[in-house]
Amino acid sequence: MSATEKLIIFDTTLRDGEQSPGASMTQEEKLRIAKALERMQVDVIEAGFAIASQGDFESVKAVAESIKDSRVCSLARAVDADIDRAGEALKNATAGRIHTFIATSPIHMEFKLRMSPDQVVEQAVKAVTRARNLCDDVEFSCEDAGRSEIDFLCRVIEAAIDAGARTINIPDTVGYAMPQQYGDTIRQLIERIPNSDKAIFSVHCHNDLGLAVANSLAAVTCGARQVECTINGLGERAGNASLEEIVMAVKTRADFFNIETGINTREIVPASRLVSSITGFPVQPNKAIVGANAFAHESGIHQDGVIKHRETYEIMKAEDVGWNANRMVLGKHSGRNAFRGRLDELGISLKSEQELNDAFQRFKDLADKKHEIFDEDIQALVSDTQKAT
Ligand code: KIV
Ligand code: ZN
Q: Coiled-coil regions in this chain (predicted)?
């Protein structure tokens, strides 16, 4: 029986996440997030873009010097100055990685880079070679791969692997790909590039059409073995693939993916809260895994089911991702069973079935006027019931 394969989790909250307008972080804040990612056992932490500013350089350096259990990475365009700056910031890392990139789509090559495809291949090779002289671990990305031609991707990637890149990243930079098509691209690249077995294929998806997670997972089923993602899906424009969704999809559906991450999932909610409080970006209540309602049940039918057997309406355990427990929200859809359960938890015992019926009726009347009924509301309505009987 073959051993389960490993999916490398590459977190870019501190680099692509920080590129989200309004999400810039201080060095001290980046260090706190990096420590949370290390506790979570993230494999690679992209700490920043060392050439972007003196502050970014210092942050990458500080993260590289304090993180021991995750690999620390800096981004660099495929130009000498960027690569040298990344190498300098990472020089004291226990395990470092230089991540260099150049655009490969026709629109980027013609209008942004003003370079021919031949020049792009030449520059990619030069960049990877230079990075390899500074660091053993080099990742190469084809920016806007989602809109690049497959023949050209094969050509530039083969050359980058020959020059020493050991991770090849295929970004869907503008979130344009569709899951099946993107998965197919990954499969074709691995099949067609003669030296593809020398590199790990990685994916990096943006969420412009809300497909970043679906695209990343489709790529995993087609051979990608590294996913780049961010906590809470933070990132440029509509964001990046969210780490918590990728990790929990792979874990919850191990039967389907047959691959595992090394992530300590109990650290997910604490990390999500930390990133939200540092950036000031709230997490929407219905966000998968980390939203306040992700493990909350309000309807009577669901509450009754969960009380009888948790798995009737839960596919994951709240505790496994770092919540204290699932949550029964008492509201107008709740039933008698959940109401009675909350009374028990509050240590309230009613004398008779009649008192319970009265209290439940008062609860329903109140729930029609209020979104959520809190413990204090229940205590008040029970004492009103007791006074009336
Ligand atoms: O989205 C993108 O293409 C990137 C690269 C620099 C990896 O963030
Ligand atoms: Zn990106």
A: none
User: 146-175: per-residue pLDDT in tens?
Assistant: 999 999 999 999 999 999 999 999 999 999
**Residue 118 marked as a ligand binder:** no
75 closest CA partner among 188, 185, 204: 204
Give the whole-angstrom CA distance, residue 20 versus residue 206: 12
54-71 per-position pLDDT tens digit: 999 999 999 999 999 999
- The reply to whether 371 sits in an annotated binding site is no
Q: pTM of the full predicted structure? A: 0.94
Ligand 2 centroid – CA 226 distance (Å): 14
User: Is residue 212 within 8 Å of residue 224, measured between CB atoms?
Assistant: no
The CB-based long-range contact list for 84-89 (8 Å cut-off, 24+ gap) reads 84/130, 84/134, 85/50, 85/51, 85/57, 86/50, 86/51, 86/60, 86/131, 86/134, 86/135, 87/131, 87/134, 87/135, 88/50, 88/57, 88/61, 89/48, 89/50, 89/57, 89/60, 89/61, 89/64
The token duo for 279 is: 């950036």
- Residue ranges around ligand 1 (CB below 6 Å): 16, 75, 101, 141, 143, 169, 171, 173, 204, 206
Ramachandran angles phi, psi of 72, nearest 5°: -110, 135
**ipTM for this model:** 0.99
Residue 171 alpha carbon to ligand 2 centre in Å: 7
Report which of 68, 72, 70, 69 is spatially closest to residue 15, judged by C-alpha positions.
72
Range 331-361 burial, b when 16+ CB lie within 10 A, else e: bbebbebbbbbbbeeeebebeeeebbebbbe
> From the CA of 171, how far away is ligand 1's center (Å)?
6
Tell me which residue has its CA closest to atom 2 in ligand 1. 173
For residue 261, which amino acid is it? T
Degrees to nearest 5, angle at CA 127 with 47 and 160: 100
- Cα atoms in the Cβ-side hemisphere of radius 13 Å centred on 269: 18
Q: Which two tokens stand for residue 77?
A: 């365009």
Specify the residue with its C-alpha closest to ligand 1, atom 8.
16
